[in-house]
Write a structure and sequence with these properties.
mainly alpha; 2 helices; about 0% strand
Length: about 70
C-alpha cells in the first residue's frame, strides 16, 4: 500500500529544474524560427558582394580538398 507523503525535497527541485529547462528550450526554438525569416535592411544590396567574397576566399580551398581525396 502506498502512503501519501510529499516527495522528497530533492525530487521537487529536480522536477522544477527539468521543467524550466524544457520551457527554455521551447522558447529558444520559437525565437530562432521567428528570427530566421527576418532580413536586415540593406542586406539585399550587399548580398551578391558577400557571396562573391566567400566564393573567392573558400572556393580554391574546397577544390583542393576535393581533388586530394
Amino acid at each position: 500500500m502506498r502512503d501519501h507523503k510529499f516527495p522528497k525535497e530533492e525530487a521537487v527541485y529536480k522536477l522544477l529544474y527539468l521543467e524550466s529547462e524544457r520551457q527554455a528550450a521551447s522558447r529558444s526554438e520559437h525565437l530562432a524560427g521567428r528570427w530566421a525569416e527576418r532580413k536586415l535592411k540593406g542586406f539585399s544590396e550587399v548580398k551578391e558582394v558577400l557571396e562573391k567574397m566567400l566564393q573567392e576566399r573558400y572556393a580554391p580551398r574546397t577544390q583542393t580538398l576535393t581533388h586530394n581525396s
